[in-house]
Amino acid sequence: MKMNARIAALATIFVFSAPVAASAQVVTDAVQVQSGHYVIEPMHTQVSFSVLHFGFSVYEGLLSGASGFLDLDAAKPKASSLSVSIPLDSVQTTSAKLTEELKGSEWFATAQYPAATFMATDIKQTGRDSALVTGDLTLRGVTKPETLRVHFIGAGVNMLDKKYTVGFDASTTIKRSDFGVKMFVPYVSDEVELRIAGVFEKQDVAPQVPAATSTPDAQKTATPAVAPAPTQTNELPKDAKASVEGEAKPEPSVPAKVETPKVTDEKAAQSVPEHDKAASMQGPATTTEPSIKK
What we know:
It contains 6 helices and 10 strands, in the order αβββββαβββββαααα. It is an alpha+beta fold and 294 residues long. A hairpin with a 6-residue loop joins strand 8 (142-157) and strand 9 (164-175). The protein is elongated and about 45 Å long.
């Protein structure tokens, strides 16, 4: 019995001390957060939305799989930048039928508008660990300015993947009719409450965009091959040629003209008898003419 009690006590200490050890590595003071380039950690970043349903209940749904980046300047938060994109076909509710309906043209229209995006345009610090982040929200092809109330949660090295991580909580209220989602308004509230859990992982080096001009080899590789221009010719294609030949009337054949052998000496040409000239018109002479001296 004493052995079992000791094992239980050790197990209890281990269970309760593990979170303490993990939380000891997390800072909750925003001033202590590391500045740098961060990317969204999609596994733990999510957007929940809720509406008042027929005045009876608050109904919630969830979006996940976000991507984007945060360039954080902890000393000057206003100099930070934020860009987020979230796929709308990731929508989930407790009803499979409703989940599929929300992907349709009356709601998110995911086939035509696959993602919602938010790009910060202004960051105003309101407290030691809070800020108002205003940006352009684009949904269903419509862009409207919206403001997020952001609260810093904590930062530190993730004990699982060993990456420096920072987390925020944000919330806002939007009108879905502003973005063309008017189905069942006002029975299902026009106002939609959004709550965002944002998790970002720090990158060692910010990704570099390839320069437009690079080494000659790179340019040669990047330049698409251009086929040489076809050589121009006056000859018609076979099918066009056949068509033209089919329409043209055949011309009568003309006997080939036999040229008279050339005589280099003018006086010799005058001395050639007429019957020899006639014979030369019919074909080559069978006997050799004697050479005529000047």
